[in-house]
Design goal:
The structure is a single chain. By secondary structure, the protein is an alpha+beta fold. It has a domain at 270-310. Helix content is 42%, strand content 14%. It has 14 helices and nine strands. The protein has helices at residues 31-45, 70-75, 78-89, 114-122, 124-143, 163-173, 175-178, 192-198, 200-204, 211-215, 222-233, 245-253, 260-268, 280-289, and strands at residues 14-21, 50-57, 61-68, 98-100, 106-108, 155-160, 275-278, 298-299, 307-310. The strands form three sheets. A four-stranded antiparallel sheet has the order 2-3-1-6. Strands 7-9-8 form a three-stranded antiparallel sheet, with helices on one face. Helix 1 (31-45) runs antiparallel to helix 5 (124-143), helix 3 packs across helix 4 (114-122) and helix 4 (114-122) crosses helix 5. The chain is globular, with a radius of gyration of 22 Å.
């Protein structure tokens, strides 16, 4: 059966809901694989002409809500294209200037590779292709696996900048609920809502508000969205799990705001993920005695004396 032609739209009209599954639907992704996939999203958000709004990485597929900045990709200066490429692949990286044959020879492009690089960085297809290929190489090398990792092409659905956009975003953030993995959306680490709850600064570096959110800035805010997603997740769907109603009612009671217990829970959950927690002096002492690289502590919760930091080395403290 012939493959249908992809629809290309300007960011003026809508975003894309992108999904892709593993070959055969096998459950291949554990915690480490999901974390690497999120790191790739961070890395590629620096260079590709896309805005990532939401994501969810599951055991055998992923969801993305992205807007492709096609106009910018076509019109930006050559220097900016090259700068973005090197942000992702290294300061000395040189983009391909032609097509590479199976024997390793290169057939030069008449324009020196400009159009090729613009397509690569400025289209949805280029972004998803790079994301999946880079992940596949890493995964196959790490596991000794050979062959294709993904089933056929990715799927993309155009989403209007309207209430439909908000519904798709909440659908993505609720995937872990519907799959009965967690009881609260924020409990799932490898999703946009989970990352935002755990580490808002990290999430804000590569997750962008959508046009719908910007146009409704007067009424739209993170607390409003949290209440909306809990109300949506509490609705029963045949064959799927839902958020327990007592949890939904608790969120509605506080108008979507995270209580102190929740905020501490999402921050302190990192105790089991390589985080030291305590006073500034405690963290510095632990890292110095353990010959660990010092990383500036961050506040666990506002108006608190507790700080947290990552731990990079497994070496035991010096006796």
């Amino acid at each position: 059966m012939a493959k249908g032609k992809r629809r290309l739209i300007s960011q003026k009209y809508g975003s894309y809901h992108v999904t892709s599954r593993t070959a055969g639907g096998y459950f291949l992704f554990g915690d480490e694989e999901k974390e690497y996939f999120v790191k790739l999203l961070e890395r590629f958000a620096r260079g590709f002409f896309v805005k990532i709004h939401a994501f969810c990485i599951l055991d055998n597929h992923f969801h993305l809500l992205v807007t492709c900045l096609e106009h910018e990709g076509r019109t930006v200066a050559d220097q900016e294209i090259l700068r973005r490429y090197r942000l992702m692949f290294g300061e000395g990286a040189e983009p391909p200037v032609g097509s590479i044959k199976s024997n390793g020879s290169v057939t030069p492009d008449p324009d020196g590779g400009d159009a090729r690089l613009r397509w690569r960085l400025g289209t949805l297809a280029g972004f998803v292709r790079e994301l999946k290929l880079t992940f596949s190489r890493w995964y196959n090398l790490r596991t000794g696996r050979k062959g294709t990792l993904w089933s056929d092409r990715y799927n993309s659905v155009v989403v209007d900048h309207s209430h439909a956009w908000l519904m798709v975003k909440s659908y993505i953030d609720l995937n872990s609920i519907r799959a009965n993995i967690v009881k609260k959306p924020e409990d799932y680490r490898w999703s946009s809502i989970g990352l935002s709850a755990r580490n808002y600064k990290r999430a804000s570096r590569f997750l962008h508000p959508g046009q719908y959110e910007e146009e409704n800035e007067q009424t739209y805010n993170p607390f409003w969205y949290r209440e909306f997603i809990y109300r949506s997740g509490g609705v029963a769907v045949e064959g799927k799990s839902s958020i327990p109603m007592e949890i939904v009612q608790e969120v509605i009671k506080f108008h979507g705001k995270l209580g102190i217990g929740d905020r501490l829970s999402y921050r302190l959950r990192n105790i089991s993920e390589g985080i030291a927690i305590g006073s500034r002096e405690f963290i510095r002492t632990i890292q110095e005695e353990g010959e660990r690289k010092f990383i500036r502590p961050r506040i666990v919760i506002e108006n608190s004396v507790l700080f947290a930091t990552r731990v990079l080395s497994n070496r035991p403290p010096t006796p």
